């Protein structure tokens, strides 16, 4: 097994997003249960890793909270004040579709700190390890520099990228986001920056419905360094493999990052209530293994996996098991009780990937056959 760090803190379960309650004009209410992003998500993933035996093979590390200087490389003073004040007042709504409780600012800071610790591990500061998985919450990729959104308060992967640049002097960091929802916050933060390559594979027009188009390729110095691959519903593993082979890997091979960061939302799984993408455990194993192998080729194996979304409590731990299997180069003896037939590569997925290649071809030699120079 490939030696791997594991970052987790018990306080992650203290971030309480509340329950979903429907209100009616006559004053009546209807409680329909926990919010999608709830504490059971990390509990179940951790238990799956324990019961499968993988956690015992990992190097466990407890993170510390991110400092103001870490967060301010990404977020504005106003944003930090808003998250802090909202939590202190005991308000539930931190932004559009972003909920919390009085301790949520502290936990969100600890989540970003988990991402930072994962970078330290990947850079060789923990027993010579070069890869890590951070089981953190709340997630982060929808949070922009000045707004919480979509379950996300601070943008963990962006904080990790800027920390890696500040502490280790890296000039090329790659972020690959396979969460089913577009990482609009991450895109916004790095849109004009060529020192961070952002690649997002997501379900087209899911959430947010107005971002993540193939035409969004960056601006200014960052033109060409934002890569969007919006995929049609029910794409499945074959379609994700096709996107990796035709877009993700060629761009990464040409960019040659010094560190690979993965926004790992396992909500493209076939059981997730917030998606329709049909990717099962083998597909997640493939994506993690492929990016680990890429990191071994181009940056001495330095790869960090950060937990983002995934909302099917029965299947999220199984999908994440696949991710860790791919990261650690193993396959545990666990019989997946959920049977969804593997989908063939659809023509719609082929066309979607081709559109992405066409939009990015002017910037990446590996995406076309002409000799147009890379910017």
Automatic annotation (TrEMBL):
GO (cellular component) term, any one: cytoplasm
Pfam families according to UniProt: Hist_deacetyl
Keyword terms, alphabetized: Hydrolase
CDD domains: HDAC_classII_1
Keyword rRNA-binding found: no
GO biological process, one term: epigenetic regulation of gene expression
Domain named Histone deacetylase: residues: 37-321
GO MF term list: histone deacetylase activity; hydrolase activity
Signal peptide: none
UniProt key word Iron-sulfur: no
InterPro entries: HDAC_I/II, HDACs, His_deacetylse_dom, His_deacetylse_dom_sf, Ureohydrolase_dom_sf
Family: Belongs to the histone deacetylase family.
Protein name: Acetoin utilization deacetylase AcuC
